[in-house]
Amino acid sequence: MTDLRPNAPKHLPHREQAATGEDNGAPIVLLHGFGGDRQTWLNIQTGLAPRKSSIAFDLPGHGEALDWPRIGNAGIAAKAVTQSLEALDIPRVHLVGHSMGGAVAALIALRNPDLVASMTLLAPGGFGPEINHRLLRRYAVASDPEMMEVLLEQFFGWEFKLPKFLAKTAAESRARPGAAAALETIAGEIIDGTVQKTLPRDELAALTMPIKVVWGTQDRVLPTRQAHKLPGTVATHIFERVGHMVHLEIPKETTRLILQNAVG
């Protein structure tokens, strides 16, 4: 983990920067989903490194950002990321967001369109009311490795072989003081009873930066049909036999689509 400048404020989401090649353009900022952390982007950052610099944030209430002053919905996370980018003196970025991180990216673009050069949204939150609320609430508080494995399997496509270490690592992370409580708070704010709060899709369609949405047909968290009625100005990429964790299931294809969008 590296600070990009020595006088960075205390309450910045923790981050790591991948190696960069010849590119001097806007960096790619990677925003993870609910219950994840910046480590989920390691394969993607490795794939991006020869051509683009990248920063992966821990969103408030996740990873090493459990002590963020305020923890809650995607709007709170969007404000935190924007403040961090300002503190790091990064004036323009390519945003990549997965699940809840997709909703965070969209809110950043809506509030600060000049900051965002492009958006690539992977199975993003906020594009329809349907959400597997029971799964997310159980996932928020699970700390037993066996139960975590059962829950995590539902995030992936049916044929994906879940690495054994993933459930163990996730369970250990959840057992950290304050981790489960933080996720319960976030879940309570992004889920309205049994549905999720939605984004203004018409306003998103009016944004001028390139937008890609990537989804898997076997997503059991957010149904793929939420991508079917997106405005024609949004490029939609649907992958068969892929679940909710697009960037982990098909990292090469995901990296390719991100780089297609992240020009300049």
Neighbour order of strands in the largest sheet: 1-3-2-4-5-8-9
Q: Rg to the nearest angstrom?
A: 17 Å
Shape: globular
Number of helices: 10
Account of the 3D structure:
β6 and β7 (195-196) form a beta hairpin. The protein has ten helices and nine strands. It has helices at 42-48, 74-87, 100-111, 133-141, 145-153, 164-174, 179-190, 201-206, 246-249, 251-261; strands at residues 15-17, 28-31, 54-57, 93-98, 116-122, 191-192, 195-196, 211-216, 235-239. It has 264 residues and is of the alpha/beta class. Residues 1-11 and 15-19 have low confidence and may be disordered. It has a domain at 15-132 and 198-261: Alpha/Beta hydrolase fold, catalytic domain (Rossmann fold, 3-Layer(aba) Sandwich), CATH 3.40.50. The chain is 36% helix and 15% strand. Residues 1-23 are annotated as: Disordered. It comes from Roseibium sediminicola. GO terms for molecular function: hydrolase activity.
Blueprint of the fold:
Elements: E1 15-17, E2 28-31, H1 42-48, E3 54-57, H2 74-87, E4 93-98, H3 100-111, E5 116-122, H4 133-141, H5 145-153, H6 164-174, H7 179-190, E6 191-192, E7 195-196, H8 201-206, E8 211-216, E9 235-239, H9 246-249, H10 251-261
Parallel strand pairs: 2-3, 2-4, 4-5, 5-8, 8-9
Antiparallel strand pairs: 1-3, 6-7
Helix pairs in contact: 1-10, 2-3, 4-7, 5-6
Core attributes:
single chain, 264 residues, alpha/beta, Rossmann fold, seven-stranded mixed sheet, two-stranded antiparallel sheet, 9 strands, 36% helix, 15% strand, disordered N terminus
